[in-house]
Amino acid sequence: RGLTPAEYRALEQIIQAFQFGPGEVIIREGDEARLLFVMARGSASVHLALPEERSRRVACIGPGLTFGEMALIDGGRRSANVVADESVICYGLSVDRLRELAVDQPNILITILGNLARDLSERLRRANDEIRALE
What we know:
4 helices; 4-stranded antiparallel sheet; 38% helix
């Protein structure tokens, strides 16, 4: 949202397409976070590891949604597993290449960060509502 056609063309130069089959791990908890993803087709589930080799599904990601965004925000390690529920096509943006692009075109990074902030805010509000519903 909010990018000009010229900015989209600049982003196309650094986007990588990825395909995953059902059950394939897209993001592994603990791995170094270097890519931000946008789901194009299919769906995937976010799983948090629990004690005794268990896990809990905490979210589903569908077309148009981003995931792995903490790579851009804090550059740390992955905080959860993301597993393809069905055949998935997603696009990955290298955080390093995005930052390089932002040197000459800072509005691209500013716009992406603004979009991510809105998305994260919406997710936090939903999570708060779900927690309230549990009480």
